[in-house]
From TrEMBL:
Composition bias type Basic and acidic residues, residue spans: 152-166, 342-353
PANTHER family, per database record: ORF PROTEIN-RELATED, U3 SMALL NUCLEOLAR RNA-ASSOCIATED PROTEIN 25 HOMOLOG
Xref: Pfam families: Utp25_C, UTP25_NTPase-like
Family label: Belongs to the UTP25 family.
GO molecular function, one term: U3 snoRNA binding
Any one Gene Ontology BP term: maturation of SSU-rRNA from tricistronic rRNA transcript (SSU-rRNA, 5.8S rRNA, LSU-rRNA)
Function per UniProt: Component of the ribosomal small subunit processome for the biogenesis of ribosomes, functions in pre-ribosomal RNA (pre-rRNA) processing. Essential for embryonic development in part through the regulation of p53 pathway. Controls the expansion growth of digestive organs and liver. Also involved in the sympathetic neuronal development. Mediates, with CAPN3, the proteasome-independent degradation of p53/TP53.
Comp. bias (Acidic residues): 84-134
Annotated region (Disordered), positions in chain: 50-166, 333-353
Name assigned to this protein: U3 small nucleolar RNA-associated protein 25 homolog
Length: 761
């Protein structure tokens, strides 16, 4: 009792900030300390700060243990007191009431109060969504009773990042052999196997030199479902694929268990097809898998979280698992051959491995995505309900990657696409290794014992580290044979530098041998040619120059590349429901690098003077780039303009004040970032004049922002204006907004274009 009383007295002596620190940092689990830490990592990496040594110390590598100070231990003990918990809740309610007093008087102000504590300047501090009710949650919940591993509460987990070393020998490729009943002992003899054809091809130095120096030749093809495809390759022997109208699963050379499990797992999507011509694939899946199975690189920029997102996820999970099972079956089969060979015989025919074990790297934005991927892999490995596979550490995985239904804020109304993207656990700092061996799966395997690595860009970035950091590791990326980047458009809203950093460190020669048997390593890995064999699958919701650059400059697959290049016919401007005149003002720039300065100069010289008059009040300036936002904010302060601003790092109380000032007309301008809109989707009321400093990254954001004008019910429709700045380098974004026909006319003409949308276009 004395300790508890002393703890209460110490708690009463803490200030509100210290109590808030207790609530936010008193947890032990490194991923759930405070989402502000992730934000700081994003911002730190984007600005390339000089404190690289400090960030490396904060990055939780696979074997690193975070040191806990005595102060944090003392604070952790105080949370066991019921009285202290009640006092914390009371203090929390007081802080929330103080913030709510700043909220605007409209109905949405009350909804925002449920979106989490204010004061967090984090772009990832998005409203937490409803717990996913997909089969992944249900399946892992049912399996908890069967598991023997220790569960991990995401809010009270271990400080050390967990990796499973208990099952190391059980999942070792070097000490296991192929089971006779698996039926794949002769898998390596199938000459028509796409896996064997791709990995066993021996390139010559002349071909490598040609791929490194010569430009790619391209050809076009029209497919029924994917549309216009661009096939490109450097090698002369280039063949264009043809879409199969019907696919027999047995002709795809799938690993034996997958032939029976895939139709069952994919049945949910086949029921939505009106007249399915294929019993195993939807039309989209059939054409996508046809390209994947040819081991060409693929860029598909039409992924939609509402419609085809799960179809695509199932397709690449099937392909990745098939690749891993075939690769491991080849190793296990050769293990048996080496075991049974006569003493004294030496052979060089069993080169079947890379310099490190990881073969597949999956980059996904949120933990919920990793949860669904693991569920799909488990479902594909289970032949029937009676033969359940053994999954190690599944309870811990459920605790760390699942979501809590109590975390959903009440009375939130957001668009359907927002609900689909931000479903479940939306933490964006994670990584997990997965080892698969015949009828077992091992979660949380150490990277060098994993077959598949699932990670977010930030999660993989903190392991790779930066030059000069003491603790960094990227050897596990040396032999990646398949790179899958899903939902690439979201990384534009997080930090694209993490993706570029990954692409610079993949398929490099390792700095250490890591215990590899060099007699089993393929010659392509020893020659450092792995990047010419790596297949890259890139899925996005849009076409963007930065995403296109990764596909064009960092993909060297000798089999060639396939990109879907469909042009939008109408554009999102057709979804604008308010009567609004749109003025598209073209600016001139000599190059892509100079367009940033040219846009700023054009704005302050030509556009801003027209809106300085008090008559042009209630002007919202939509700024996609955070760096442009900072530049404009500093200029507005320097010119002493009457403005307020909202970005992804703005505290919640400040957001409420800015919205209220703008609604009442106390502030003439509102600087508004695209990333804030992406993560929050608030309706900004009081807009009369719109300025798109740059075209939105997501085309549907254009119509969403324009339709916010109808939230102002003041009967001044005639005074509404919308001005858009664009250059010739914005062709893709412009086509997504106004359509391809108007884009061609606007790029040919150097005059300003006036469009009037009646709401019926």
């Amino acid at each position: 009792m004395g300790k508890r009383r002393a703890g209460r007295e110490l708690l009463r002596s803490l200030s509100k900030k210290q109590k808030k620190h207790l609530r936010e940092f008193g947890e032990e689990h490194p991923f759930y300390d405070n989402c502000y830490c992730c934000c700081c990592l994003h911002l730190c990496f984007s600005f390339q700060s000089e404190d690289s040594d400090k960030s490396s110390a904060d990055s939780d590598s696979e074997s690193e243990v975070e040191q806990v100070s005595g102060y944090h231990k003392l604070l952790a003990t105080l949370k066991t007191s019921p009285e202290s918990e009640s006092e914390e809740e009371e203090d929390e309610s007081e802080s929330e009431e103080a913030e709510e007093s700043e909220a605007e008087v409209d109905s949405e102000g009350s909804q925002e109060a449920g979106e989490g504590e204010g004061g967090e300047e984090d772009k990832n501090d998005v409203p937490e969504e409803e717990e996913a009710t997909d089969p992944a949650e249900q399946m892992l919940s049912q399996e908890q009773a069967d598991g023997t591993d220790t569960p991990c509460d995401p809010h009270h987990g271990a400080i050390e990042e967990f990796t499973d070393v208990k099952h190391e020998s059980e999942f070792s490729l070097e000490t296991n052999f192929m089971e006779e009943e698996s039926g794949d002992c002769n898998a390596d003899r199938q000459d028509s196997n796409p896996f064997k054809q791709h990995m066993d091809k021996e390139l010559e130095e002349k071909e490598i030199e040609k791929m490194s120096t010569l430009p790619k030749t391209s050809s076009q093809s029209q497919w029924p479902r994917l549309g216009q495809l661009i096939f490109s390759s450097t090698l002369e022997k280039h063949k264009t694929l043809k879409a199969d109208k019907e696919v027999d699963v047995k002709q795809l050379h799938l690993h034996k268990p997958l032939e029976s499990t895939w139709p069952k797992v994919n049945k949910q999507f086949l029921s939505a097809v009106d007249k399915p011509t294929d019993s195993s694939f939807t039309p989209l899946q059939r054409e996508l898998f046809c390209i994947m199975n040819s081991y060409r690189d693929l860029f598909y920029p039409e992924r939609n979280a509402l419609t085809n997102g799960e179809e695509i996820r199932h397709s690449y999970c099937l392909h990745a698992l098939n690749h891993v099972l075939k690769a491991n079956a080849q190793v296990l089969s050769n293990n048996a051959k080496r075991r049974d060979r006569k003493p004294g015989t030496d052979t060089d025919d069993h080169r079947d491995q890379g310099l490190t074990r990881p073969k597949v790297l999956m980059i996904v934005p949120f933990r919920e995505c990793a949860l669904r991927i693991v569920h799909i892999l488990i479902s594909l490995l289970e032949v029937n309900d009676k033969k359940k596979i053994d999954v190690s550490n599944k309870k811990r995985f459920k605790g760390e990657f699942g979501s809590d239904p109590e975390e959903k804020p009440p009375n939130l109304k957001r668009p359907e696409d927002y609900e689909a993207v931000f479903a479940g656990n939306i933490d964006d700092h994670f990584r997990i290794g997965v080892a698969i061996l015949q009828k077992s799966m091992r979660l949380y395997a150490p990277f060098y014992s994993s077959d598949i690595i699932i990670a977010s860009p930030l999660g993989i970035r903190t392991v790779i580290g930066a030059e000069g950091e003491k603790k960094r590791d990227f050897d596990f990326l040396s032999s990646i044979e398949m790179l899958i980047i899903d939902q690439a458009d979201i990384y534009l809203m997080q930090n694209w530098e993490h993706v570029l950093h990954l692409m610079k460190h993949i398929n490099l020669l390792p700095l250490d041998s890591h215990g590899v048997d060099f007699s089993r390593v393929r010659m392509l890995n020893l020659n450092n040619w792995c990047k010419y064999y790596r297949q890259t699958l890139l899925f996005s919701a849009l076409q963007d120059p930065q995403i296109n650059s990764v596909f064009n400059k960092h993909c060297f697959n000798y089999a060639g590349q396939v990109a879907v290049r469909n042009v939008p016919l109408t554009g999102s401007i057709s979804h604008v429901v308010v009567q609004l005149p749109h003025v598209f003002r073209r600016l001139e720039a000599d190059s892509v690098t100079s367009v940033i300065d040219a846009r700023f100069q054009f704005f302050i010289d030509k556009v801003l003077p027209e809106y300085r008059d008090a008559i042009m009040s209630h002007t919202l300036v939509y700024v996609p780039s955070y760096f442009d936002y900072v530049r404009l904010r500093n200029y507005f302060k320097k010119e002493d303009l009457n403005f307020t601003h909202i970005c992804e790092y703005t505290k919640k109380a400040a957001v409420c004040r800015a919205r209220r000032f703008f609604l009442k007309g106390e502030k003439q301008f509102l600087l508004f970032t695209e990333r804030f809109h992406f993560y929050k989707r608030y309706t900004i009321k009081g807009i009369r004049n719109l300025i798109f400093y740059e075209l939105p990254t997501y085309s549907h954001f254009y119509s969403e922002i324009c339709n916010m004008l109808k939230a102002t019910d003041s009967g001044v429709d005639a005074t509404w204006t919308c001005t858009v700045l664009y250059s010739k380098y914005d062709a893709q974004k412009l086509a997504a907004v106004v359509g391809i026909d108007r884009t061609a006319q606007m790029l040919q003409s150097k005059k300003n274009v006036h469009l009037f949308v009646t709401g019926e276009n």
